[in-house]
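Subject: Sanity check before I submit

Could someone independently write out the structure tokens for this chain? I want to compare against mine line by line before I put it in a report. The sequence has 287 residues.
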Amino acid sequence: MSLTFTIDPSESSFFTQPKPKSLMLNKNISPQFLRELSSTGRFRSHTAGYCQGFIQANLVVLAKAYADDFEQFCVKNPKPCPLLEKIGPGAYHSVKLAKGADIRTTIPKYKVFINGQPTQETDHMLKFYQRDQVFFLIGCSYSFENILLKAGIELRHISEGKNVSMFNTNIKLDSQGPFNGNMVVSMRPIKEDRVNEAIALTGRFPKMHGSPVHVGTPEAIGINNINKADYGENVRIHEHEVPLFWACGVTPQNILLNAKITIAITHSPGFMFVSDLKDEDYLEYNL
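---
Independent answer below. Compare away.
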């Protein structure tokens, strides 16, 4: 099936401007500045470790015809798909997470699915935008990392300057309409004597995937090679460390492979929407 996309004339200058070089940045920049740099093509990195203390979010963009089913899929599967904000159709600016932010341009890298196949990655999604599209922003585990770092728990992907390791699993999800499949997880190696603490701390963020869905024994959830990530980057696991697996917001991208809908757009794994809200806004004390 061939697809035709119409560009709003008011946005046509975006495509004729020269693309600036990506910048090396201090990771403690503000979310507003990071989004500004992303929207102008000057920030194209994964967002792990950036804007610590601020909520990050996964993205799924679907035509209105699929929006109700996908929203219900999120309700049925809150661990991998905790819904933070729904925008549209006919709108594409955040109201809750970062008021006024254009979701079509403020993520460093997007992934485009055509008929269920990932066809390309792009630094904006303007040429794929259609007025009937609905934007879903979903909780991200990067959002609970600040509390772990403050507790002195090392996060290997951050200390190695990498994207987090993510894996496909055999964990089945509840289906809804065309959306069905297995969970994707993110993995962080944690020292044996800090595992219980890491579980407890992340459990205070249910809207950011909460506590791990699995601890140790990756083979038990269908991961045959812990040193070969399906998404993100590989990290070292040291002696006396245990791999912990959290539900991951890349799960919808795995689900889209099965759904085979005409067009869908997501963030590229690890390249998140960075919001203006802080982790403490989602911290729950009475769990």
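---
OP: Matches mine. For the report I'm noting this point. The chain has two domains: 29-142+253-281, 144-251.
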